[in-house]
Amino acid sequence: MYYTTPELSTPRLILKRGNLADFRQVYEYDFRSLRDVCGEFEYIKLDSSLIAGFENAADDEDTLNWILFLKDTMTPIGDLVADRPVAELHAIELAFNLHPAYWGQGYMKEAAEAAIAYLFNTLHFENILCGYDEGNVKSKRLIEKMGFLPYKTTQNAWKKNGVPVTTYDFILSKEQFLKKQTG
What we know:
alpha+beta; 4 helices
């Protein structure tokens, strides 16, 4: 299936495709060092050559890629990607990053709810998958707040600096999402 990333709007945000300059602002810092996996939490600037081509990701098959812009200033503050569909679950995976200057203000929850509503109501997925790696408590909190339920745990999914890291996968059904929205 080929998807075209649509523009979505929330009370404070516009979600739409971005350009390379937008991705450079969102990925000012290396998110691998901000997730607190294996106790590592550092504000390390990202080598901008590592994001070359990110703006074209929305042209990939089975991928929707939104940049989150503040409505009042059109400042890019984060991104959401829906990709890697799982046919047997009629699901798609949602991943997210938010510039640390905007953490704790509810922006990602607001954006994710808009994207999830689109995935359920327009593209007719039955489930959304989302996950986090051991130690990434900010992502864990958001996933749980949004009503995702535990789906699968993969012990020693990968290694960071030689230390095995567990990955936690969660699932959200359309029914769970609607119940949480009307709850």
